[in-house]
Amino acid sequence: MKSNRSIGIIVLLLLVSNALFGQHVRFVNSGTIEFEKRVNMYAKLAKRFSKSNSNFMEQALDQYKKTQPQFKVVKTSLAFSKDASLYKPVDEGSGSSGGFFGDDPTVDMKKIIFTDFANDRSISEKNIYEETFLVEDSVRNIHWKITSETREIAGYDCRRANALVMDSIYVVAFYTDQIPVSGGPESFTGLPGMILGLALPHDNTTWFATKVNDVPVQQAALTPPKKGKKVNNEGLLSALKSGMKNWGDYAQEIFKAMML
């Protein structure tokens, strides 16, 4: 009898402790996230070596290593509500400090990406050299595979998911269900929570949240971009291929960066 009573007390204490713990779990439905994009420039540039350019690229990379850090860091922000998000670069002043490759659009392509979760639509402003495109299309459908791996990012417990996008780009994402909004940096969405960490291992590029600001976001902060030549994703790719048909392998890098 005493044994059954003791078991009952233990179960009751566990239930109470779980309930109290649950009261301290805060779910964020609106706010802003600061992201840091890091590109391993040494590895990225080394991949551009070929038989035809090896001498030039070897000299260029050697000079780059003497004057520039290994990682190029770009800051971006994501404002979000339960219905929409707006991803954009953080203005850090004018001027380039990346040497010969400082204005490489495959490294730091300025994008403003509005995602309408309610209607499954995306509107993006994308700049390539002197031309600006306003791309409106459906949100990319990504087939994620959720794993058991976890890690902490910006104070949130996150779970890993893997996917393949654009047929060949391997993606690793870490999302948190404590922010129950299916968003993320760039145009990556579709997980049961906000993506706070993202990596393209073969492109030597990562995005990781450095800070989550748990504050209500006004509707004015979630206004879609309006500038640029209006196209959908298919029209954008067609325009890029037409304008860069003689650019060789480098054009493929630009296509990838623009379509992400």
Which structural traits does this protein have?
12 strands; 5 helices; 36% strand; globular; twelve-stranded mixed β-sheet; 260 residues; alpha+beta
Brief overview:
Helices cover about 25% and strands about 35% of the residues.
Molecular structure report:
This protein has 260 residues and is α+β, with helices and mostly antiparallel strands. Helices cover 25% and strands 36% of the residues. The protein is built from 5 helices and 12 strands. It has helices at residues 2-23, 41-46, 54-67, 233-243, 249-259; strands at 31-40, 71-80, 84-89, 111-116, 121-128, 131-138, 145-153, 156-165, 169-176, 194-200, 205-213, 229-231. Strands 7-8-9-10-11-1-2-3-4-5-6-12 form a 12-stranded mixed sheet. The N and C termini lie far apart (65 Å). The model is unreliable at 6-24 (pLDDT under 50).
The span between the termini is 65 Å
Average pLDDT:
86
Give helix and strand order, one letter per element, not per position.
Answer: HEHHEEEEEEEEEEEHH
Strand sequence of the main sheet, in spatial order?
7-8-9-10-11-1-2-3-4-5-6-12
